Amino acid sequence: MAINTPLSFSLLSSLTFILLTISSHAFSIEEASICDLQLAFKQNQLTSRKLVEFYIGEINRLNPILKGVMETSPDALFQADKADYERRIKAPGSLAGLHGIPILLKDNIATKDKLNTTAGSFALLGSVVPRDAGIVVKLRKAGAIILGKASLNEWAGFMSVKAPNGFSARGGQGENPYLLSANPCGSSSGSAISVAANLVTVSLGTENDGSILCPSNANSVVGIKPTVGLTSRAGVIPISLRQDTVGPICRTVSDAVYVLDAIVGIDYHDHATQEAAKYIPHGGYKQFLKRHALKGKRLGIVRNPFLSSASESESQAFEHHLQTLSQRGAVLVDRLEIANMDTISTGTAEGTALLAEFKISLNAYLKELVASPVRTLADVIAFNQKFADVENIKEFGQDLFLAAQATNGIGNRENAALSNLAKLTRDGFQKLMCDYNLDALVTPGAGIARVLAIGGFPGINVPAGYDDSGVPFGINFGGLKGSEPKLIEIAYGFEQASKIRKPPTFKALNFTRMLLSSLTDV
C-alpha cells in the first residue's frame, strides 16, 4: 500500500495539533463540516496545507488498522498550497464550496496524475488512464484537493461472491471504525470508513447495487446514490452503465449536497448525463437544505421484508424515527409493500443482465487505457490465475468474472431479463410511489438498494442509531428519478431533527493497541 508520509511526521502532526488546540483554542478539524472549514479558512484559523497535513497524519496513524485508504497523492500538498494562494488573492470561487477541501476518491475513479486507478486489483497497477474521470474534472474545477484513493471491494465486488466486504488484494481488509469485527459493507467501503473515522472531510463512492447506501449505513455516514446519469460515469471502472452511478459519502447531509452540486451535469463522454441533466434544478441542490421541509411530505413506510433481519435496537429506533417524522409534519402512509419483492430480492434477472453488461463495459474501459497490463476481461482472468496467491484467487475464486466471460453480448436471454427488470420496476416501486402520491419511500437500513438499483432511482442513507455493540445502522429515503430535491429536504429535515451521528468509539477503546501496532510497523 502506498501511503506517502512517514509515521513520525503523522505523530508529530497530531501532537502539534493537540497542543495548539489546548493552548490557543484552535479550530478543531475532527468532525468539521465543509462550512466549518471554509469559515476557519476565512478567519485565518486554518489553511488547506494544515488541513491536508492533519489528514495525512491521521491516515498514517490509523490506516494500518482501518485500511480505508489505498494511497495518498504526492501532489496533495502542492494542491493545498495552490488553494491557499488563490484564497489569499481572493481568486474567483476560492472562498466557498469545495475550494481547498480534501476529498478521497474510490479507487475505481480515474485520475490523470500520479495516483493509480486499479479497483483494488494488482492487474491494473501501473495502468495509465487517458484522462481524468468526468467527475474529477468537475472537482478540480471547483478547487477540491484530490487527497488520494479510497479502498473498496475488489473490482467493486464483481469478481467473486465469496470475497468479503471491504477486501481487495491491493488494499487488504477494510475495517469498520465503530467495531473492527463488524461488516464495513461495500463496495465503497473505504470511502465510508475514511469519512467516518475523520481521515478525510468528504469522499466519493460509486454504486451499482448498494455500494454507496450499504457502507454508509454500516459506518454511520450520509450517502447519496444519485439518479443514474445525474453524475458522469466516464472514467469510472464500470459494472453496468444501466445501473452505475457516482455519489458523495460524507458525515452530514449538507456536505453530501455540496459535493453533489459540484459533480452533477453534462459530460459528453457519458451520454446518459445529457438526458439526466433535465433533473438538475436551477440554482443547484443547496437550496433544498431546509430544516422545516418535512411538513406535508408524503412518506411511504415499508417494513416488510426490511425489518425482518433488523436488530431489536434498529427496530425500536425505526419506530421512534417515524414518530419524529410525523411530529415534524410529514404524512406517513404506513405498512406499504413493494409488489414482487421476493422476485426482486433473488437478483436472478439483475444478475443475468449485469454479467453480460459487465463484460461489454469493462472491455470498453480497458481498451481505452493508454497503457495497461490487461486489455480485456479475459486478460484479467488470466492475470488472476497466474498470480493466484497475490490476488487471493485460491481463497475466493473469480466466479463472477468467469460467468461474465462466458456471455456473448446482449442476446435473447439478456433481453428477457431486462424486460423483466423493467416490469418489476414498473409494477413495484414506481406503481407504489404513484398510487399513493408519495414524495419518498422510507425503509430501515440499506435493504431497498436493489429496488432502487434496477430502476436507476436515487436514495439517501442517513445515520439512524447504533445497536448494543455500537455498530451503526441507518434509515433510507428513496424516490423516483430526479427526486433528489425532495429527498434532500426529507433527509436534511430528519437529520436536523434527530442529530444521531457520533464519531467512532474505536479511538477511545483501541487507541493504545492501534498506536502500538503502528509503531511496530515503523
TrEMBL record:
InterPro entries linked to this entry: Amidase_dom (IPR023631), AS_sf (IPR036928)
Signal peptide extent: 1-26
Record bears the keyword Ribosomal protein: no
Limits of the Amidase domain: 51-447
Keywords: Signal
Protein name (database record): Amidase domain-containing protein
Organism: Populus trichocarpa (Western balsam poplar)
